[in-house]
């Protein structure tokens, strides 16, 4: 293994493309029952394990164990706990797991039981990320979420009893959601005292069912000013309760409660994505045969049936590969790392002094941190992170 790759952590993302229903706002690569003929959950597990075997050959000689594993989707817990454990065992057999590995699964509050969570914890899972989204029934109805708010508290209690860390995921800015609705959801979160909270502004994508409702005038467009007020309220309430922001949309009680897997994305670490539509990234490295390889990203075919068919034929499921030049990597570091509370070294955007000064004057960047050589977003800057990236990177 080269020092180039050895300096970076390695993680595994496993995309489980199944959901009980497709929510109206969702544009992820997910499929509800009946949407995909010839693609079963059993067949998915077989195909995912076959991709791991392919990865073992591709990364032969690398030697890094997985420090993080993240099951996302979709709803990974649409698979039973035995299937999830089999997939984790596949990761362990392919790469190994570091002694302090963080292993997370996303879940809906009504897709887990005390028994299933205990089974996951025994197998080595360490975190569960529950899709709470809101504590207000009419907001959940607009989002087409199927769980009742009471299910969240039960799922949190069961996860804690199993010894798992708990993250709660929220969405704000749903059509018809008021600031008082949002406050009620935040209060419900704080009552549950999770280890970690994620809060994302709703973006209504054109190809979704909600996007069609928006075009027909059946739902109102999201108001950016209201969403900004909601973000500021979340940051105020979470900070007062002892949660520190470490990424624009993420807060944690302690540094150890931060999602290490997502931090690896933002810090341009390496990961292999398993499953239909999953993306992977490997930075510059020396392969097992001693030949140097540059940074590259690739992504799998999206359809579960096509994914399984390729692997059954012994073929790679990759749809396309993108080599990354040094300038591509620099731009990505600015785009991703600027979102973190740690910020970026000013040297990473050498020659942008005028843009930096303007962003400080506009209250987007912390002037004191900039004097010390670090570009760090203010709270106002977090609301304007995309603007800051464009000013600094392009």
Automatic annotation (TrEMBL):
Keywords: 4Fe-4S, Chaperone, Cytoplasm, Heme, Iron, Iron-sulfur, Metal-binding, S-adenosyl-L-methionine
Entry-linked CDD domains: Radical_SAM (cd01335)
Chief subcellular location: cytoplasm
Subcellular location: Cytoplasm
Radical SAM core domain boundaries: 4-244
NCBIfam families: hemN_rel
Family note: Belongs to the anaerobic coproporphyrinogen-III oxidase family. HemW subfamily.
Function: Probably acts as a heme chaperone, transferring heme to an unknown acceptor. Binds one molecule of heme per monomer, possibly covalently. Binds 1 [4Fe-4S] cluster. The cluster is coordinated with 3 cysteines and an exchangeable S-adenosyl-L-methionine.
Record protein name field: Heme chaperone HemW
Organism: Demequina sediminis
